[in-house]
Amino acid sequence: MAQSKADTASQASLQSDNVSVPHEEGIHVVRSITVDRPVEELYRFWHTPTYMPTVFKNVESVDVIGDNRLRWVIKLPTDQKVELQVEVYTDVLNEVISWRSLPASEMQMAASVRFRPAPPNRGTEVQLTLEFVPPGGALSKAFLRLFEEAPQQYVGQFLREFKQVMETGEKATIEGQTSGRESEVAQ
Amino acid sequence: MKAVTFQSTGNVAVETVPDPRIINPRDSIIQIISTCICGSDLHMYDGYIPTMRQGDILGHEFMGIVVETGSEVTNLQVGDRVVVPFAISCGQCFYCKRGEYSLCDNSNPNAGAAEEMYGYSPAGLFGYSNLFGGYAGGQAEYVRVPFSDVGCFKIPETLTDDQAVLLTDIFPTGYMAAENCDIQPGDTVAVWGCGPVAQFAIRSAYLLGAEQVIAIDRLPERLQMAREGGAETLNYEEVDVIDALKEMTGGRGPDSVMDAVGLEAHGTGVGYLYDRVAQATRMETDRPTVLRQVIQACRKGGNVSIPGVYGGIVDKIPMGAAFNKGLTLKMGQTHVHRYLAPLTEHILRGDIDPSFVITHRVPLDQAPEMYKTFRDKEDGCIKVVLKP
């Protein structure tokens, strides 16, 4: 991705003859969020392979494996991993990035993120589209649990955490806080 | 440390729990000096805020001393005496930048659930159920303050602990409620409820130039405190409030009305009985007895200000009266951050000493008894300060 042709302003289909998610199959999710940061910063985040795992806890790693090719490792709640070989097939600076899985992947997936300026002083609108066919077999159950059978909500949380990190530098969380649930016996 | 934890409806306990620790770079840990029980804590105590879990640490009104700061916190030092607004705000989103801190986009880790319920998620709140983030509260010896660079305000030395702790919620809440009345010279403001928020709303309405404030309740000690703040008072068990207000305003009606009661209103008559039944059977979650009355009592073109808390669904709101009289309704959780500087200034100038409202000061250990005393309005209880 680092060598992508992002600097060409025209919408370029970088490679066009690979399979991703067949028409009218799989799960299709579209969600938008407005982030109060300049588009350049948001585009840079999605365009830099190493950033994604720092924000999204289910993305274990993203590695560049070739020209416009990436390996994504998705971690499931069961600690199983799904490996995807992905091609960047659209990359227009500050406008859109699209990815789709290559046949060697353990599941079929296509995703895109689009950027559009919000009205003045409202930041940037970010729209994430995700299509996938859940993997079969043992992975399938784990994968559905990752999405808690509510892909819209999962993707919503994904985007909220992205916004939190871009706007505030950290993710709002209560993970690790103490409560009376793990308390010692009252003295 | 010791902390007040929710156990079940009508049951809180003081337990020993692990001390909080820094989780995020903008966190700080505060050692609590003073913390209060708020009327809205009672909504959880009474089971009207449904996403409480056993073991949750309660409390959203607290002040204390900074004992540890996260790596990104540069404006606080260990040893600073600070007051902490009840809403958690990032300071950097669209809403925070507009001063609408309680609508912060980024502070509720459980925003998905709040979005399902409300369409969009308001800010995370300390000690206020899972729906508002599930953050541990400050009725404890220590608390973790997220976004502490925005959420901790250093207090001038001349402000007492008791004065400061009332800045975390109820003084600003009363003040914002009065601001929402858009008070003009000559205005009469009628305030339903004479609890702690109303006491501050009464005094704030005068600070903002009200000609007359009329306060409505049934408890003699609360009505007395309202009179001490300059209000005329009405006991709703003794008079027809709407008629009385009309007479007291020369037939015009109050220019602004305020529901400082919220979802657990008491009242009289058929409407109140309807709400008790509907709430008990979960046909509605909130009892809007007062809200109906304020709408009915308000003059044409007036303002309805709602500092009293609502959480869910209400029934039989006289929308026709609100519409045809052209009323303006204003409400919401208080944007405490934006009031801290001006209200501190009022205290330092001697315009108001907020500690007048405190009736009980007890050790933290006595929290379980005090929740009950406050809920049942026994022993003249209006405001409780807990000392860890």
Note down, in words, how this protein is organized:
- Chain A has 187 residues and is of the alpha+beta class.
- Helices cover 21% and strands 33% of the residues of chain A.
- Chain A contains four helices and seven strands; from the N terminus they run βααββββββαα.
- In chain A, strands 1-7-6-5-4-3-2 form a seven-stranded antiparallel β-sheet.
- In chain A, a hairpin with a 5-residue loop joins strand 3 (69-75) and strand 4.
- The N and C termini of chain A lie far apart (58 Å).
- The relative contact order of chain B is 0.15.
- Chain B is globular.
- Chain B is α/β, with parallel strands linked by helices.
- In chain B, helix 6 (170-179) crosses helix 13.
- In chain B, the strands form four sheets. In chain B, strands 3, 4, 5, 8, 9, 16 and 17 form a seven-stranded mixed β-sheet that branches.
- In chain B, strand 10, helix 7 (196-207) and strand 11 form a beta-alpha-beta unit.
- The A-B interface holds A 34, 36, 122-123, 153, 156-157, 160, 163-164, 167-187 and B 3, 5-6, 13-21, 23-26, 53-57, 72, 88, 90-94, 97, 105-109, 111-112, 115, 124, 133-136, 144, 146-147.
General form of chain B: globular
Q: Average pLDDT value of chain B?
A: 95
Task: Tell me the Rg of chain B in angstroms.
Answer: 20 Å
Broad shape of chain A: globular
What is the β-strand count of chain B?
Answer: 17
- The poorly predicted ranges of chain A are 1-17
What is the helix fraction of residues of chain A, given as a range?
10-25%
Care to count the β-strands of chain A? 7
SSE layout and pairing:
The complex is a heterodimer of chains A (187) and B (388).
Chain A: E1 27-35, H1 39-47, H2 52-55, E2 59-66, E3 69-75, E4 81-92, E5 96-101, E6 108-117, E7 124-133, H3 138-146, H4 151-168
Antiparallel strand pairs in A: 1-7, 2-3, 3-4, 4-5, 5-6, 6-7
Chain B: E1 2-8, E2 11-16, E3 28-37, H1 39-45, E4 61-69, E5 81-84, E6 87-88, H2 94-97, H3 111-118, E7 124-125, E8 142-145, H4 148-151, E9 153-154, H5 161-165, H6 170-179, E10 188-192, H7 196-207, E11 212-217, H8 220-228, E12 232-235, H9 241-248, E13 256-259, H10 269-280, H11 289-297, E14 303-306, H12 319-324, E15 328-331, H13 336-348, E16 360-363, H14 367-375, E17 384-387
Helix pairs in contact in B: 6-7, 6-13
